[in-house]
Amino acid sequence: MPWTFGGVSSGRFGAKAAALGRDPRPAARAGPRGYETIPGVNNQTADSPFIRACRRQPVSSAPVWYMRQAGRSLPEYRATRAGTAMLDACSNPDLITEITLQPVRRFGVDAAILFSDIVVPLRAAGLDIDIRPGVGPVLDKPIRDEDDVARLRGLEPGDVAFVSQAVEMLTAELGETPLIGFAGGPFTLACYLVDGAPSKTFDRTRSLMYGAPALWASLLGRLTDITITFLQVQVQAGASAVQLFDSWAGIVSPEDYQRSVLPFSRRIFTALASAGVPAIHFGVGTGELLGLLGEAGADVVGVDWRVPLDDAVHRVAPGKALQGNLDPAILLAPWPVVRERASEVLEKGRTAESHIFNLGHGVLPETDPDILARLTDLVHATPAGSAR
Ligand code: CP3
Question: Are residues 74 and 309 in contact, defined by beta-carbon separation less than 8 angstroms?
């Protein structure tokens, strides 16, 4: 069985002490296709199904992982987190490591995603931001003018030493299973900083973007620098891929996205290109933006559940893998419904040059972990195949 219950580790992750003694970052060597891989890149995972699919190389079945796979739907997560505030857990390398491994042990997913949050680098860069349980990120003094932007200093790698340490421990434990590092996109980070709290439409953020373009540019410029450093830290410590969560980018029009958001996201993917790891670009409600998300420069475009993958294929220029896109709410339905809908996603995914199975957004806390286990097995049991 690829998964086990109750945080009992499988043999793969058992020899923790021995594994920790290994250097997770082997020296430069020729990659599977003969290209020279660069030091700092985790070469152990280069031939894993997830990395191969990111690079649009053939795989026997679609690789699968889930956004928010580590979280409140898992009893072992709730037990580990009990009594510890979210951002305290995100600053503790042992807790980060344990929580990140939980869904890999339980489901046998094809990738781990670092347990952290998009606001972690902002807090590490000195901002007084917190995550309120059941609410999300809140900032008592939202950013509204140039003086507020000046409060946002740059991020030094040493500010997030706990992340580097966790990534090193994780890559040693994970072996050939890739670890995905991540960051929030500059637009989504700005949403929380300008509105000061979660919202459906982030009206203050959009009005600042329209009405104060110079202030917007200086805010997003700083957030872009912080994001680049945060992602580089994770890659240098051994992360095999990165995902940029620009979750709320879908609330602006394509024209405004192109003018006021895309240049910053593009700068992130350009800066990351030399790191040699695949990059994924994801947002919610981005049906009208999928082509532009691809243009920003990632290898993989994440699709939410509103656009079928065989339609998304036509919205994204050739040369990209697609990730997605089962509606997370489908997992609350009976298993035969999940099976049918997941099979449809896999079928439509065959029209893409390459497909990574995922949900269209994060796992809902009320999801039954057994359904996720069955879903993972179903994806693995379905042969991949490109219709192209
Ligand atoms: O995917 C994973 O398993 C990795 C963990 C992860 C978390 N946050 C942990 C978390 C990731 C990738 C994120 C990213 C994140 N954080 C995003 C982008 C992804 C998305 O969902 O669109 C956003 C917008 C945030 C901001 C944020 N943090 C929100 C809106 C919330 C939810 C508030 C709530 O309690 O419902 C958080 C808190 C948070 N981040 C939790 C987790 C597991 C829940 C807190 C808890 O367990 O107490």
Answer: no
Judged by average pLDDT, the poorest of 71-80, 218-227, 379-388 is 379-388
Residues identified as active-site: 68, 72, 81, 117, 192
Span from the CA of 302 to the centroid of ligand 1 (angstroms)? 17
Q: What residues are in contact with ligand 1 under a 6 Å CB criterion? A: 67-72, 81, 86, 113, 115, 117-118, 131, 133-137, 182, 188, 198, 245, 247, 362
Structure tokens at 310: 């065989």
Locate 235 and state its tokens: 């890659």
Residue among 309, 310, 311 at smallest CA distance from 327 = 309
The answer to pTM > 0.70 is yes
State the distance from the centre of ligand 1 to the C-alpha of 42, rounded, in angstroms.
26
- Nearest-atom number in ligand 1 for the CA of 117 is 8
Paired residues of 113 in beta bridges: 180
Q: How many residues does the chain have?
A: 388
Of the candidates 229, 180, 167, the residue with the CA atom closest to the CA atom of residue 25? 167
Report the alpha-carbon distance of residue 340 to residue 342 in Å, rounded: 6
Query: What are the tens digits of pLDDT across the range 125-179?
Result: 999 999 999 999 999 999 999 999 999 999 999 999 999 999 999 999 999 999 9
pLDDT digits 0-9 by tens, 308-329: 999 999 999 999 999 999 999 9
C-alpha 184/C-alpha 355 separation (Å) is 23
Give 248's strand partners.
Answer: none
Is the pLDDT assigned to residue 261 strictly greater than 80? Answer: yes
Residue from 68, 92, 129 to probe ligand 1 pocket by mutation (most atoms less than 8 Å from CB): 68
CA–centroid distance, residue 115 to ligand 1 (Å): 9
Q: What is the pLDDT of residues 87-123, one digit of tens each?
A: 999 999 999 999 999 999 999 999 999 999 999 999 9
